[in-house]
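Quick review question:
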């Protein structure tokens, strides 16, 4: 069987969640099923990344280059096209090739989050990166029209994607209703729910749990929308005023467009014990860390949470997206309205000396006390601070 992955970026397992899953699927399809796996992508990546091995790869360059993609599908005798979030592309492929191939659309994002793609800040950023004064002026002048057009067209792309795909794969059953509602889709027959795979084929040995270090870890793209890393930085600033945490450190693995802004904030506020590590293999960091923070406003699954759990790192996430409530997802959930108390929860975890906590946050207003029910404690975990 010949499988074509269509991705936004060229693929490296260290680039992001979608790319890590693509890497895993490609390797396993080739090893277990003897499939031939190909990649078509729109944007290249830094040469420092170790790229995934495919049987062939094609850089499309422009999203308008559908004819080049169709030609590649025919040339490589593709049986299955796996679209990794390319809304609307299924229609063009189906109309050109018919039912000779299977089209699977895998959505790695929360349905409708693409509305944020056309924003004033993104438009200014594109102008800053591109050349041509006149073209940039026209882009900024036309921004209101482009935004309205984008917001109108996006639900139609969801509908077309569903209609022209053989299957639509979501990461959580909690995402089916938002997808159908946003795309005005009447049935759910084509949906399949497949959670993300585990990223690593090893687990942290339980007997070494007491060797964990006093490290709070973030593994993320460093972009404020939707990752909200600034929440962690502001909370860490408050935590560093507690002398008991003088030997704890916050380690941030990843890079992104807001990285310099975060570094400037840390420097200007003289925040101690924060280390920006850049894009690196996160595995050794998971092995050392004790607490994992996810501050995202929206996620479809949150791959780094299961990565943290593989290595005995207690995950903390804001209760801001539905898949957190999937069965058997055990971690601390922070009520989404209580941003001001984030550092209190981190302190609670550190000084509880426990490994797996399940705390369900109530909807009661914050009243200077932890709005939690009785935690379920299964194992002792942290070394004494």
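Suggested answer, residue by residue:
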């Amino acid at each position: 069987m010949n499988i074509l992955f269509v991705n936004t970026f060229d693929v490296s397992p260290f680039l992001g969640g979608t790319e890590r899953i693509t890497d895993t699927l490609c390797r396993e399809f080739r090893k277990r099923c003897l499939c031939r796996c190909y990649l078509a992508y729109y944007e290249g990546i830094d040469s420092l990344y170790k790229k995934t091995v495919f049987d062939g790869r094609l850089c499309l360059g422009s999203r308008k280059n559908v004819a080049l993609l169709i030609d590649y599908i025919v040339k490589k005798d593709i049986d299955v096209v796996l679209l990794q979030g390319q809304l609307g592309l299924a229609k063009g492929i189906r109309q050109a090739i018919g039912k000779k191939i299977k089209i699977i659309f895998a959505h790695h994002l929360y349905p409708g989050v693409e509305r944020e793609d056309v924003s004033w800040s993104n438009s200014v950023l594109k102008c800053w990166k591109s050349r041509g004064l006149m073209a940039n002026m026209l882009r900024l002048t036309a921004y209101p029209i482009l935004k309205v057009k984008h917001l109108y067209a996006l639900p139609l792309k969801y509908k077309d994607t569903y209609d022209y795909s053989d299957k639509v794969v979501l990461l959580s059953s909690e995402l089916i209703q938002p997808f159908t509602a946003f795309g005005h889709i009447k049935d759910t027959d084509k949906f399949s729910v497949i959670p993300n795979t585990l990223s690593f084929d090893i687990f942290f040995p339980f007997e070494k749990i007491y060797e964990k270090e006093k490290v709070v870890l973030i593994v993320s793209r460093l972009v404020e929308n939707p990752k909200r890393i600034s929440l962690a930085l502001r909370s860490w600033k408050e935590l560093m005023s507690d002398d008991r945490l003088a030997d704890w450190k916050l380690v941030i693995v990843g890079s992104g467009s807001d990285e310099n802004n975060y570094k400037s904030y840390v420097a200007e506020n003289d925040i101690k014990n924060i280390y920006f590590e850049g894009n690196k293999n996160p595995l050794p960091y998971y092995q050392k860390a004790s607490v994992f923070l996810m501050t995202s406003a929206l996620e479809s699954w949150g791959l780094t949470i299961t990565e943290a759990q593989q290595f005995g790192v207690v995950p903390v996430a804001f209760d801001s997206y539905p898949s957190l409530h999937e069965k058997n997802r055990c971690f601390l959930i922070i009520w989404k309205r209580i941003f001001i108390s984030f550092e209190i929860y981190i302190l609670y975890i550190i000084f509880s000396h426990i490994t797996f906590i399940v705390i369900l946050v109530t909807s009661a207003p914050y009243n200077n006390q932890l709005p939690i029910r009785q935690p379920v404690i299964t194992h002792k975990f942290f070394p004494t601070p």
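Why it works: The chain has a mean pLDDT of 80. The longest helix spans residues 143-164.
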